[in-house]
Amino acid sequence: MIKIDICDDEPLWIDKARDIVGEYFKGKQEVELNFFDKSQDLINKIVNKKEYPDIVILDIDMPKLNGFETAKLLKDTYPDILLLFYTVHEQYVFEAFQFQPFRYIRKTYVETELKLALEAAWHLIENSHEKYITLKSTDGTIKVKISEIVYFETNKRRCDVHLAGRTINVRKTIKELYSEIDSPDFVMIHSGAVVNVRYIKSYSSFDITLESDERLVVGRNHAKSVKSALAKYWGSRI
């Protein structure tokens, strides 16, 4: 699923963008669309609630907080966001460069330019080597890179997901999360924990040591699969 936020204070242009997005992705990809007529509401969703979209279509000429001011806040929080400026003002194109937009869409050519921008953005997302996962926690919805997950473990009926420097308590069982991540870099070390082999520094038949020097127990029934996953990963690095 691709998540797209559209922010414009004019309903006509929100409807136009919605129709073009819907038409382009029909039969190709499921899309979640969110609409905003105030920049502050978009910022609250992304910056404060940390509910990250894949693409933001943002009007420049917005009241109170214009598109450039909004773009700066979004980029400071989420540098990899694919930002499409959406405006009738062609003269802003050079000023827009400082915010590193993915595309600059002129509303007078919206039918052509927005479709081309969506095609390029979708291609980039589909071919990205860096995969993300969206986690629902007590602090809201958080989008994280799968490669940054060190390990996750059962905590009652939820999971504690350990990243470098922080832990997120998420509303999933360990089996659900393991299935969703679906990466050969992750291996179950016992019935209540799954580890990213990238972060394993050393291994024995009864435990592993992470790069952080934290030690985790390896269950007897999982020792063989842990050893195999490590051999495959370390072998690929030679």
Automatic annotation (TrEMBL):
User: Which intervals hold domain Response regulatory?
Assistant: 3-122
Q: Which InterPro entries match?
A: CheY-like_superfamily, LytR-like, LytTR_DNA-bd_dom, Sig_transdc_resp-reg_receiver
Modified-residue entries (4-aspartylphosphate), positions: 59
Q: Where is the HTH LytTR-type domain?
A: 133-232
The entry's keywords:
DNA-binding, Phosphoprotein
Translocase keyword on record: no
Provide the GO MF annotations for this entry. Answer: DNA binding; phosphorelay response regulator activity
List the protein's name: Stage 0 sporulation protein A homolog
The UniProt function text for this chain reads: May play the central regulatory role in sporulation. It may be an element of the effector pathway responsible for the activation of sporulation genes in response to nutritional stress. Spo0A may act in concert with spo0H (a sigma factor) to control the expression of some genes that are critical to the sporulation process.
